[in-house]
Structures are given as structure tokens and as C-alpha cells.
Design a protein that fits this description.
The chain is built from eleven helices and eleven strands. The protein has 307 residues and is an alpha/beta fold.
Length: 307
């Protein structure tokens, strides 16, 4: 079996959308602690240098590889021809870094009020012309593939594709060039079971976010009064090993059927309440323990601190 590649998201250190979370934490601290926790890869974030040469040099000095980056797409409202010039700089950047996938997040057709919208106002997929939308995303994925990357679609809370049913409907409508990102935490936050998505779409999953959830926090949220950002502040998400999801079925699936993408630990948390290095070590220890139990080989970062 191929070695598993374990990466982490910089969201534990610095949030991409909730700017006050981790705004004081430097890029150097983030990558040094990611390496110290044991990871060999990291996704890109807003604190990262803009030049691919600088990213590659700084990451390699810590034994890290660049994994991918989130791209905010608007194909729910515009054509592929209009989207491509917006996307191309990131495509070019990721190709220069030697990445293999690009994450697509749908940022059009969101709830009225944007980040101020409460959880109950999440936009339904039924608000879109599904066939036309899926066709545009598929065409965009083909263009991304011609440029040298695989496009992975990120179902996400407060976006049109969120629930298990919406994932099924969208992926059935989208063509083969488009691949799926399995985010365990977002599926759970939307009331679903990641194992259902995993079993139905395993052959089209090309990227995995290991995001855990605290069910007690989720269940205490008032969807008619609280926003997604407030849920993050409350601590609804955490790393594997610190939340309520069982990752045994996922690792068992990998042991039986193989998987050649990255496993990326990701938790949107307040770094003051959830110290990033501690959280990163918890996530790495839990997932690496499961991999060892299933005799799946993986690399540890040379800087790994076992304490």
C-alpha cells in the first residue's frame, strides 16, 4: 500500500474568514508547529508568502510540502469564461508549487446577509438550476485538469451543497472530471453521517478534511439566532481525537480500498481557547494511531516532537 500523506490546515492557527481568530499568529509559527506536531504537508493560508519560490523554500526547511488551497468560486452566478481569469492565478500558483488538487468552495448563491445570516438561513440547492450549475462546475473542472490540477468540490455549511442529499444530487449531476472533497466535520454539522458520503462516493473522493465536531456544542446552538461564525467561536469544530466522530470506518476503508490523496487535519477554532500546537499534536496522534492499527504506512516529519 502507498504511504498515507498526513497534512494539516493552517485554520488551527489563523482563520481565513473570521479574521480576528489568530490574526496575531505568524506564518513561521504556523509551519514550525505543524512540523513539530508530525505533519509532512500543509494547506495554504492567508499568512503564506505570495511567491511560490518562497513558499517552497520555507516549507521545505521544515520538512513540509504544500498540499492545496481553497478557491472561492462563483460559478453559481457566472460562466466558466468569466470565472477562469479569476481562478487562473491560483491555478498557476498551485501548479508552480507542485500541488495536485485545488479546492473549490461555492461562494455565490449564499444566504442573504452573508456571514451575518443565521444557520437556519442556509441556502438550499433547490434555489439553483442544478443541471446548468453542475455542468458549469464540470466544465471548469475540465479546464483546471488541462492546466494540471484536479478540482475537488467542497460541500460546506451555509453553501448550496451541504447535506448528504445535496451532495448526492450534485455529484450525480456533475461529470467525472469533478472530484469530491470529503469533509467529515461539515457533513456532521449539516446533520449527516460522513460514512454515507464515503460509501456512495469513494471512487470520486480525491481529498479528505479530517474535521471533528463537538455534538454537545452543535446541539446547543440556536439555528434561528446564531451564525456559522458564532458556532466556530463557540467551539463546534475540533481536531480528530478531541471530538465525537469515529474515524475508524474511514481508516478501515482506506486499508481495504486504498486512497492516494492527502488526509488533512482541519479544525476552525479560536486559538486562544484551543492552543494550535496542542490541537495539532492531538490530531496527529489520533490519526497516526489509527493508521498504525491498520498497518497503513505513513511518514512523520523529522521535526516531530513526541511530547
Amino acid at each position: 500500500m502507498n504511504k498515507m500523506q498526513l497534512g494539516i490546515s493552517p485554520l488551527s492557527w489563523t482563520n481565513e474568514g473570521i479574521l480576528e481568530l489568530g490574526d496575531d499568529i505568524s506564518y513561521q509559527t504556523c509551519i514550525a508547529e505543524a512540523a513539530q506536531a508530525g505533519f509532512t504537508g500543509i494547506e495554504l493560508g492567508r499568512k503564506f508568502p505570495k511567491e511560490p519560490e518562497t513558499v517552497s523554500a520555507t516549507l521545505s526547511s521544515f520538512g513540509l510540502e504544500p498540499v492545496t488551497s481553497w478557491y472561492s468560486g462563483f460559478l453559481a452566478e457566472r460562466s466558466v469564461e468569466d470565472e477562469w481569469p479569476e481562478a487562473f492565478p491560483m491555478v498557476e500558483h498551485l501548479v508552480a508549487l507542485g500541488c495536485h488538487v485545488m479546492v473549490y468552495g461555492e461562494c455565490a448563491a449564499g444566504p442573504v446577509g452573508g456571514s451575518a445570516a443565521v444557520l437556519a438561513q442556509t441556502p438550499p440547492l433547490g434555489g439553483l438550476d442544478l443541471q446548468n450549475y453542475a455542468s458549469r462546475v464540470t466544465d471548469f473542472a475540465m479546464r483546471v485538469r488541462e492546466a494540471g490540477l484536479t478540482l475537488v468540490y467542497h460541500p460546506h455549511v451555509m453553501m448550496p451543497v451541504e447535506t448528504v442529499d445535496e451532495i448526492d444530487r450534485f455529484m450525480c449531476a456533475a461529470g467525472e472530471p469533478l472530484r469530491l472533497l470529503l469533509d467529515t466535520g461539515h457533513v456532521a454539522m449539516a446533520g449527516g453521517d460522513y460514512r454515507v458520503v464515503m460509501e456512495r462516493w469513494w471512487n470520486r473522493i480525491s481529498h479528505i478534511h479530517l474535521k471533528d465536531i463537538r455534538r454537545s456544542v452543535r446541539d446547543a446552538l440556536d439555528p434561528h439566532r446564531q451564525t456559522f461564525d458564532e458556532a466556530v467561536h463557540e467551539g463546534v469544530f475540533t481536531v480528530p481525537g478531541d471530538g465525537d466522530l469515529d474515524y475508524g470506518p474511514l481508516i478501515k476503508k482506506i486499508s481495504e480500498h486504498g486512497y492516494d490523496g492527502w488526509l488533512v487535519v482541519e479544525a476552525e477554532q479560536d486559538p486562544v481557547k484551543a492552543p494550535p500546537l496542542t490541537m495539532a499534536k492531538t490530531g496527529f496522534s489520533y490519526i497516526s494511531g489509527l493508521l498504525e492499527r491498520h498497518a497503513i504506512p505513513f511518514d512523520r516529519n523529522p521535526s516531530h516532537d513526541h511530547n
